[in-house]
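ok trying this again, last paste got cut off
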Amino acid sequence: MLTLLKLLKDGRFHSGQALGAALGVSRSAVWKQLQQLEAELNLSIHKVRGRGYQLARPLSLLDEDAIKQASKGEYWPALIFDSIDSTNAEALRAIERGQPAPFLVLAERQSAGRGRRGRAWVSPFAENLYYSLVLRIEGGMRQLEGLSLVVGLAVLQALREQGVAEAGLKWPNDVLVGTRKIAGILLELVGDPADVCHVVLGIGINVNMQANAEVDQDWTSVQLSTGKALDRNVLVAQLNSKLQHYLSRHQSEGFAAIAQEWEQNHLWQGRAVSLIAGVNKVDGIVLGIDQQGALRLKVGEIEKHFSGGELSLRLRDDS
C-alpha cells in the first residue's frame, strides 16, 4: 500500500493501468489499495475518468538520504517508520535493545502520540514532524538542568529560520505563534540520573497540517504561518543542527549561560498567569526563570519558584 503511495506522492495524475503495471497487480487491486489509503491514512485522492488518480496535494515523505544531504555538522542515524504508536515509546524500546546513542526515531504518523500530562498528540500521516532524539547522559543531574527549555530554544530557532518569525516560547515546553501552539516537547528519562542515563527528547512540530478537527486547543503550523509547504527532511536536518549547537553549549557552560536567551524569547514575560497543578491553582506575574529552569512567579509580594512536569501555565483573563 505504501509503495502505491510513493508512486502518487508527486501530486500528478497516474492511470490505473500504469500503477498496476508498476506494482505488478490488476487495476481492481490498485482500486482496493487506493480505498485503503483513503480510509487508513485519511488521504484525499482525486479519481478522474480518462486521467487516473491524483493525491489532493503532493506529499513529502521522510527519507534518510534526503536528511543526510540537507545536514550540516554531525549526522545522527535515524530509525524511520511509516506508522508507530509513539516515537518516544519506540525510542525507549530501542534503548532496551541496546541501540547506541545518539540516534533519532522519526515517523510518518503516530497511533498513540503523547504530549505532556498524558495528553494525546494528534499525528496525521506525512503532515507534521514526530521526532525523538536519544542521548546518553553522563555526569549527573547538572546535565539535565533546564534541558527541556534548551530543546525549546533549538526548536524555536529552527522554526524562525523557516520563516515562522513570530514564534516564541511558553514555559515549560511549548512553542507558540501568538496564542496558537505550533510545537511541543516531551522529555523522558531512563536509568540513573545521578550517574549514567538515557534521555529521550520528544518533539512534535505542526509542519504542513492545514485543518484537523481532532486537536482540542488553538494551533497553527509552519505552512499556515508562512503560506508555504515545507520539506520535513529539511526541517529534520535544521533541527538536528540547532540541537547540536544548544546541547553543546548546555554541556560545556550549563543552563545558567542560556537562561537569559530563553527569557528573551518567552512570550509571557511580565504577564499575569495561573499556574495549575492538578486541582491547585496559583495566580501570579511571570518574572522569568531561575538558573535551573524553574518558573519565577511574583505571588502577591513574594517571589516563588515552581518546577515539575505536571504543571500547566495559563494566561489570566485580566492579563
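PB: full thing came through this time. The chain has nine helices and 14 strands.
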